């Protein structure tokens, strides 16, 4: 799906007049976040200069790896070898001892280790593309932003983990005295943030949950599957409204078609990558889109 909209007014923090500033937004979607690798390959092939990346949840993980300079070949090797257990491991002791009072069903250290293995650097100042990621402060209920144009200081690994710490699944991140969770809870596709940071063109890759699903299959999957479904519905409604009501700078909205696959389908990661590539390549090839990048 492609939406290319007309310019309205200058972005709040825009660059020089006439200068194209393309920002790429990578949304959340658990294992479907692998599609961002394919999307990035399509963007590179189209030779579109990218001024910055905004990542949310799984998009923050992939965005940090991209901004750090991971090659497509390195990504493909990672996708080939990563397994569900490398990212999602049940926190058996905590669940057994604390039951429903446990902070999470899954172990945070497993996700953190997976992120560290994927990132080519753990330093913000070594990223080759400006990166911004978001998270939600459990106390204030507000979004916090890390990295380029951010309002908080934290290590790269801590910031990315916080953005991906999906409630119930992973424990909140403890950063600077704050308890932080998945940024997608409030803003899965931060169009306004990209505009504020100076974007004159936006490519938004949406890999979130579909509005429809097999209800019986969701219920049969247990409480985690039900939680993921409800979280996805809430985040999905917000991001669709954001795209539908967008009146800012030209936007190319990319929505890969994953069929009935969901964010737990790690065995479909190669398919996710290729579908991300196909959908983005098709979107960028649209005549109206091509006129926007130069």
When the domains are counted, the total is: 1
**What is the percent of helical residues?**
25-40%
Under the CATH scheme, which architecture would be assigned? 3-Layer(aba) Sandwich
Provide the residue-averaged pLDDT.
87
Pattern of helices and strands: EHEHHHHHEEHEEHEHHEHH
- E-strand count: 8
How is the CATH topology named? Cytosolic phospholipase A2 catalytic domain
Unreliable stretches (pLDDT < 50, length at least 5) are 1-12, 290-294
Q: Under the CATH scheme, which class?
A: Alpha Beta
Basic shape: globular
CATH superfamily membership: Cytosolic phospholipase A2 catalytic domain
What kind of sheet is the major sheet?
A: 8 strands, mixed
- What is the structural class? alpha/beta
- Give the radius of gyration: 18 Å
Separation of termini?
21 Å
What is the number of helices? 12
- What proportion strand? 5-15%
Account of the protein in words:
This protein is an alpha/beta fold and 294 residues long. It has a single domain (22-281), classed as Cytosolic phospholipase A2 catalytic domain, CATH 3.40.1090.10. Helices cover 40% and strands 13% of the residues. It has helices at 35-45, 58-67, 72-81, 84-87, 92-98, 108-118, 156-164, 191-196, 215-220, 223-244, 269-285, 287-290, and strands at 22-26, 52-55, 131-137, 143-147, 173-175, 178-182, 201-205, 251-254. α1 (35-45) packs parallel to α11 (269-285). The radius of gyration is 18 Å and the shape is globular. Mean pLDDT is 87; it is low at 1-12 and 290-294.
């Amino acid at each position: 799906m492609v939406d290319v909209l007309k310019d309205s007014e200058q972005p709040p923090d825009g660059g020089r007049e006439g200068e194209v500033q393309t920002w790429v937004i990578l949304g959340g979607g658990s294992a479907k976040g692998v599609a961002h690798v394919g999307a990035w390959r399509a963007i590179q092939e189209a030779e579109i200069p990218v001024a910055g990346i905004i990542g949310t949840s799984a998009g923050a993980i992939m965005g940090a790896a991209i901004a750090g300079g991971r090659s497509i070949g390195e990504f493909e090797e990672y996708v080939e070898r990563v397994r569900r257990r490398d990212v999602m491991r049940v926190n058996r002791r905590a669940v057994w001892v604390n039951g429903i009072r446990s902070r999470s069903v899954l172990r945070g250290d497993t996700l953190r280790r997976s992120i560290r293995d994927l990132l080519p650097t753990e330093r913000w100042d070594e990223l080759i593309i400006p990166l911004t990621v978001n998270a939600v402060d459990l106390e204030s209920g507000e979004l916090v932003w890390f990295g380029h144009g951010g309002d908080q200081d934290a290590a790269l690994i801590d910031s990315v983990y916080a953005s991906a710490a999906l409630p119930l699944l992973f424990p909140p991140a403890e950063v600077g005295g704050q308890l932080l969770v998945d940024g997608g809870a409030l803003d899965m596709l931060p169009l306004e943030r990209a505009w504020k940071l100076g974007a004159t063109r936006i490519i938004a890759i949406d890999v979130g949950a579909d509005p429809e699903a097999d209800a019986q299959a969701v219920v049969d999957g247990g409480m985690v599957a039900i939680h993921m479904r409800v979280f996805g519905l809430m985040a999905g409604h917000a991001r669709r409204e954001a795209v539908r009501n967008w009146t800012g700078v030209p936007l190319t909205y990319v929505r890969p078609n994953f069929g009935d696959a969901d964010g737990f389908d790690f065995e479909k990661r190669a398919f996710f990558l290729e579908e991300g590539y196909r959908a983005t390549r098709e979107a960028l090839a649209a005549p109206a889109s091509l006129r926007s990048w130069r």
